[in-house]
């Protein structure tokens, strides 16, 4: 989910630039102790608010001082600025394995001991390797195949894509009650998550991974079929609060609140929406529940995201901190507090509170096949960020396909061609 840019890519958004500039000199200190004199291990993280507080709680068990810098959503812009200034942190937490590969290629990272890959599924750790060497270790997972809803607004949860389309069509045409869908389309990664879940269902084995490797195959039928299905749903009359234009101004967290307060019936969001769902309910309404992303062509998707820790080149203390974070009990405080999933197979699922977290952890660990967020795996200029890359392409697709009188087939073909061109520019195979 965290964006990344290549050299020569469009400038980051004003919001991201201001955040990176401001946070370069402002740090959030871990409870384990800290020092600005250089004695503390410094770690840059994308988290803020409650997630940042929970990470501080995790660090209280570390035996040495740690300085935590909250770099915000665009940690890539922050790290690039710190690299140019010669003040890179010891450790960074990255939500994009594509950035791990890119930084390793640039010699910005120190390789890690291979035993740090042992607690994780091989398909997870392989995403953090370059030229056979390990450059990152996973510290957090995200379950990206969930819908949130209020049972008072949805009589029967959709099991198939056809069920979902029928529900949105019926509620949108009713003209009363909650609007069927909330969507935080102002955050382009929300739209890529939709595409990835549909694509994993309709694409043959290996196709999804080929796209993630940068191969320019976006004009092939699995992509155009996926875009066509999304166009059919998103263009339904009355689908969104305030219409599609309003949806393009809605942030992901606001979209969750639109459901928990009863204004919308459904929102597709990952497990980390749990904190917002719990905190922003409307008095008198029941708590939000979840259901899995509906099956498409008889296949139910499971798309995961995650955050990985890397050591910046030149650090002498970074691997020690990562070794602690990879420990099976390091994140116990966050597990107990809720809103956290561990990709570490050594974390027993009975340590999670009963309910959603434990259920998702069991499903994640037992799944024979899972896919990692495609846009997070992309490298270079194709990777997403505010207003650029694949995020921008999907936002343009959403805007165009929901416009009154849109030729949806033409929009689908144009979007597929744009994605293919972007993949080529980013260094995909000819």
From TrEMBL:
Keywords: Transport. PROSITE patterns: PROKAR_LIPOPROTEIN, TAT. InterPro entries: Bact_solute-bd_prot1, SBP, TAT_signal. Belongs to the bacterial solute-binding protein 1 family. This is Sugar ABC transporter substrate-binding protein.
